[in-house]
Design goal:
Length: 163
């Protein structure tokens, strides 16, 4: 398809506010606070899953750690690659996002931090019981202790094979 003014004008990325890239996935926040994800969804790092052949974003309605969907561990993970940006609805406006190697953290305009993906070393901040989740989950320890987060940022580092 040839680009044209109409396609561009209808694009949710016309007013992209922030773009973050992990090893194999990316996320975009628009000026309207919409969050879009795409790339390799292994380990839940996109916060989306396949349902009936369609890729759908999760909306956990503000579930906090300790309330992770128990079906996550029981469902067999299928390879999930999202080739086109897919909106991830967290139920409120997103102000910032950051992608790690295998996880993603999103900050809402109200200061709530949602995390999802792999937590092999506790990256999600959800405690030791959660090793991986595709459900964006509120990091309750920040919210419950009265902390107001203004920005989220992660850095990527490959581990040395000589370590």
């Amino acid at each position: 398809m040839e680009p044209n003014d109409q396609n561009f004008a209808n694009s949710p990325f016309l007013h992209s506010f922030q773009i973050s890239c992990g090893y194999h996935h990316s996320a975009v926040v628009t000026t309207l606070g919409r969050l879009f994800v795409f790339g390799d969804g292994e380990g839940g790092r996109l916060g989306v899953r396949k349902e009936g052949g369609d890729t759908v974003g999760q909306n956990n309605n503000g579930r906090s750690n300790g309330e992770v969907d128990e079906d996550d561990d029981e469902e067999e993970e299928e390879e999930l690659t999202v080739d086109e940006p897919t909106e991830l609805n967290l139920g409120e406006e997103v102000s910032s996002v950051s992608c790690g190697g295998g996880h993603t953290v999103a900050l809402t305009a109200t200061g709530r931090v949602f995390s999802f993906g792999s937590s092999s070393d506790g990256q999600l901040g959800l405690g030791t019981a959660v090793r991986e989740t595709a459900n964006p989950t509120v990091v309750a320890s920040l919210k419950d202790n009265g902390h107001f987060v203004e920005k989220v940022m992660m850095a990527l580092q490959r581990r040395s094979p000589y370590r």
